[in-house]
Amino acid sequence: MLGDVETRSVSPVFVGRADELGTLHTALGRAAAGEPQALLLGGEAGVGKTRLVEEFAASACARGAVVVTGGCVEIGADGLPFAPFSTALRALRRALPDELDRAAAGREDELARILPELGDGLVRGRDGRGDESATALLFELTARLLEQVAAERTVVVVLEDLHWADASTRHLLAYLFRTLRSGRLAVVATYRADDVHRRHPLRPLLAELDRLRTVTRIELGRLTRDEVARQIAGIIAAEPERSVVDDIFRRSDGNAFFVEELAVSAAEGCATGLTDSLRDVLLVRVESLSESAQRIARICAEGGSTVEYPLLEAVAGLGADELIEALRAAVGANILLASADGDGYRFRHSLVREAVSDDLLPGERSRINRRYAEALEADPALVPADSRVMRLASYWYHAHDAAKALPAVLDASVEARRRHAYAEQLRLLERAMELWDGTPQEIRAALRMGDYSSAYRSCGCDPAETRLDFLDLMAEAADAGRLCGERERALKIGKRAIRILEDAAADGAGDPLLAAWFWLQRSRIISHIARGNGWDEIAKAQELVRGLPPSAVHAEVLAHAAAWGMLHRPGAETLAAAERAVEYARMVGDQEVELHARLVRGGLLVDAGSVEQGFTELYEVRERSMGLGLMARINNVNVNLPSALESAGRSAESVRICDEGIAFSHRHGLTDTKGWIISNKSESLVSLGRWDEAVEAAEWARGFCLSDKPRATSLTQLAAVAVGRGAFQEATRQLAAAQRYIGTHDPQPQYDLPIAHRAIELAAAQGRLLDARAELARIVDAGLPPSSHRYLWPMLRTAAEAEADARGLPAADAGRAEAVARIRTAAAQQATPVPLWLAHDQWVRTELLRAEGRDTPDDWSAAVTVLEPLDRPYDLARARHRLAASLLARAEGDDRERATELLRLAAAVASHLGARPLAESVALLAQRARIGLTRDAPRRDAPADPAEELGLTSRERDVLRLVTAGRSNRQIAEELFISPKTASVHVSNILAKLGVAGRGEAAALAHRLRLFPAVRS
Predict the structure, then answer these.
(1) Whole-number pLDDT of residue 943
(2) Which runs of E-coded beta strand occur in 282-394?
(3) How confident is the model at residue 952, as a pLDDT?
(4) What local confidence, expressed as pLDDT, does residue 385 receive?
(5) DSSP 8-state secondary structure symbol assigned to residue 468
(6) Pseudo-torsion of CA 956, 960, 962, 966, nearest 10°?
């Protein structure tokens, strides 16, 4: 290896960049104060990104920060999975060994997928079937590791050359930028902006990060003429002539690297020999080297971003002295630099490396890659173990030797899957499929399914003895594409596989089980990318396995069909499908599919009313999944069990199970699953009257959950609280956003019905009774989905309440009988085996009696009685308010005393929840009855005027009465002998005093508070 070699093509003067450096220093200050910082530094190639980062790093070190750097590695056209994070964490462990080891304690095996030194050399898998939770865990552990290491010491992590980043690195960086919450940490990522064309894979990530307010974007521009002059002066150690500055500025256009190259060339007297082409500018100093030094440069250009000295020595074919002299010349000319760890060499600038590589002849490039591959096969210790398999695969592939490349590429794909780098696995498998036909038959025959395929193993054969075939590669690639989010590519691969299998079936050599498996994968992808609901694909899979002996694929098809039915068509038929899936899974001994089917069966049993049997099933699935460590099933049950508990009215138990699931998800880095669970928890918190906690939970899920559907659930709960608190405009926005997340491609009762319920509730609260009726009619006339009692009972109760509240409004008369009959008929179809559903039944029947003017205190007393044990304070407070009103209307015996106590209880709940509409209704009823809502309140001798209590003048009271009757401004003006403009002013003042947004809400409030009892139908 070489010692220091003096070079002078880098300016000793740091020119310009004051604003950009200031931004970086500001971020460092915030990080030091405990506020994590994320920064993106972009600029064209050669503009000076690396120099700016070096200056910042030196300054940060001077302030006591630990700075570590990791660069995205390019091997040919390939990136190594997680390469910049591996390099940065390795440097961080050298700098802070004790802190990093403490932070990684207990999680070494998982973190070893990024930093192998933490493990024992064995990268262990999870369960047999791949799922996104493994990647999520790795990402979460990495983020928390950095936060913990940076808890007491400021840490700066620099990730260079994102334009070369592999997909796994991009995904991890996005996760890191989204989830950093604590620690004295700054992450700076650089990328070459001119390489990020419209279809570059980095472009979507940059767009996503731009939307995060926590990410600071820095765009590095070119140097001005004055800055170019200062840079040249620093390089040549003299004041340059004006003509030289003008010429270099014109030709470089302010690009710092080009300025440097042109300045050195001019100083050496060879400027006149240059052309204006970029290639010649970059190659001119390489071509001035000796032949052996040029040869080393060409070899290094194909070796990757950094080439280890022992590997370079093995490939170069030069004597030790000749190699050292060649390297000394290349380093002295500032073409190559020693790597940061001192073990190898890299080009000082990637532009030069690319120019040298592009200048190679096709045969020359293949030959160099072959020599790299042969050297690495002969001595694997020439490169670090964590990059060996990937680099060997790349070298053989670019050597164009299919016989050697195919096994190497397949080995690399297995390594990528073990690291949960599914995007790299997909790329490698696509490369293997490309090589397949060109590989000699004897090489392909030696490959075994057990070594390379894990996605599909339901062939009934011994994988260790079964030959790997092309369809096995396609199955593995389709699965990898689904797991890494490249669903369009996975869909394309699956479509091609199905076509191959169909052609084979036509020739009598089909494989229906494998075809059914591909149709199942297609179903999952179709529903994810909003191309449909996935049922047609499941039906095709069912057709393929029908009549075949029991198999794992058959059981999986039945389980998927049952799971689809649970979401779309719950009922007896779907429950029977789940039973068959459990039976088949047990026959073939597939525990995971069995637990999946039992989970579905348990949820369906609860929905069907067999509540205790259903919960016994769900809790058993939970316990067995935990015991077997089946992450996918654990995730499912942690989401489904609390949802089922909430449906049965066991809200407190649901919150407890949610908290356990949230803790589990947090420990395992399952942010998306955590979001699903928290969205479920928000629903139970609303039921329990813990509205502030519900809002906090829903806001978290909306902000951090990666999936759209739990976001929609959270928004629906936010809308419920907003309606309850009288924030109708906010509720309107929340419901609209929830509907956008749900879309229209895959309707499911569990999302559509709650949104419809809140839409009815909001319309009624705003006085839009006809809209509320129309929404209910849409749901009922389309056919009420079976086993959806948990959603339909609250909706029918709200619709009945709207009809009862509107009794006496002239505009509500038309269609009332039909609307009441529709609600009554729909309610008669719903089951009541659960106390909560029984309470809804009683409430609905009583509200319908109120809508017809036939309710009695006994009816309302029955409703209150069934609600009291259910721990639903808001619902109970509303029923108590209705009972109090009914008692005061009857006014017999101790009715007034009972009503007083009921109103005080309802008022206390309304005040605690901030439920303004309920509080106003209770207060107005108390005022009309001369009842004090506190025990020490003075007794009123005369009824208060509700309109006066609201601050309305006599004229505004008259105007509000006519608004409530549905009059327009012109009609009001004619009746009160005022101008339409004056009527409009009065209406605006009324809306402001009532705190409502429109005439409908004003009318609804007036009617709810019975301000004008004389208005009757």
Answers:
(1) 46
(2) 307-308, 336-338, 344-347
(3) 83
(4) 87
(5) P
(6) 150
DSSP 235-289: HHTSPPPHHHHHHHHHHHTT-HHHHHHHHHHHHTT-GGG--SSHHHHHHHHHHTS
Nearest-10 Cα torsion for 207, 208, 214, 220? -30
Task: Please report which residue ranges of 630-690 form alpha helices under DSSP H.
Answer: 631-647, 651-667, 671-687
Residue owning tokens 């209770």:
922
What is the signed CA dihedral for 898, 902, 903, 907, rounded to 10 degrees?
160
Give the DSSP letter of residue 302. H
Q: Which residues of 752-764 are buried (b: 16+ CB within 10 A; e: fewer)?
A: bbbbbbbbbbbbb
Structure tokens at 515: 């075809």
SS3 state at 114: coil
392 CA to centre of own chain: 34
Which residues are bridge partners to 158 per DSSP? 69, 188
Using CA atoms, how far residue 830 sits from 334, 793, 848, in Å, is 81, 8, 16
CA–CA distance, 677 with 657 (Å, rounded to integer): 9
pLDDT of residue 271: 44
How far is 894 from 219, CA to CA, in rounded Å?
77
Return d(Cα 351, Cα 334) in angstroms, integer.
13
The secondary structure of residue 129, as a DSSP letter, is S
775: nearest Cα among 819, 740, 816? 819
DSSP 194: G
pLDDT of residue 131: 60
Place of tokens 């304690």: 105
Residue 192's H or E segment, with its range, is strand 185-192
What is the CA angle 212-215-219, rounded to 5? 120
Catalogue the long-range contacts made by 742-747 (C-beta closer than 8 Å, 24 or more residues apart).
742/708, 742/709, 742/712, 743/530, 743/708, 745/530, 745/531, 745/532, 745/533, 746/527, 746/530, 746/532, 746/533, 746/534, 747/533, 747/568
Please choose, from the candidates 359, 258, 267, 376, the residue with its C-alpha nearest in 3D space to the C-alpha of residue 313. 376
Give phi and psi for 160, each to the nearest 5.
-100, 150
Alpha-helix residue ranges (DSSP H) falling in 470-511: 470-484, 487-506
Write the single-letter amino acid at 201: P
User: Strands 155-160, 185-192: parallel, antiparallel or unpaired by DSSP?
Assistant: parallel
Kindly report the backbone phi and psi dihedral angles of residue 71, in degrees, each rounded to the nearest multiple of 5, phi listed first. -110, 145
Q: 166: phi > 0 → left, psi -120 to 50 → alpha, else beta; which?
A: beta
Report how far residue 764's alpha carbon sits from residue 798's, in angstroms, rounded to the nearest whole number. Answer: 9
Please, what sign has the CA dihedral across residues 735, 741, 745, 749? negative
Measured CA to CA, the distance from residue 514 to residue 456 in angstroms comes to 8
Pairing of strands 215-219, 155-160: unpaired
Reduced to 3 states (helix: H, G, I; strand: E, B; else coil), residue 156 is strand
Calculate Rg over the CA atoms of the chain: 36
**pLDDT value of residue 327:** 92
Assigned token pair, 99: 């802190």
Q: Give mean pLDDT in consecutive 10-residue pieces for the chain, a chain of 1017 residues.
A: 44 78 90 91 84 89 92 62 89 91 87 83 46 77 89 92 87 85 90 80 83 83 84 80 81 78 69 47 80 92 90 91 92 84 82 83 92 95 90 94 96 91 92 96 93 78 86 93 86 94 90 94 86 91 92 92 92 92 93 94 91 95 94 92 95 96 83 89 96 95 83 96 95 95 86 96 93 95 90 96 89 89 95 92 96 94 94 95 94 91 94 95 90 67 58 83 83 80 84 79 76 51
CB count within 10 Å of CB 822 equals 20
Phi first, then psi, for residue 67 (nearest 5°) are: -115, 125
C-beta of residue 496 within 8 angstroms of C-beta of residue 474: yes
- The reported pLDDT for the residue numbered 612 is 93
- State the Cα–Cα distance between residues 704 and 706, nearest whole angstrom: 6
Q: Which amino acid is at 699?
A: E
Say which amino acid occupies 405: A
Instruction: Give Dmax over CA atoms of the chain in angstroms.
Output: 114
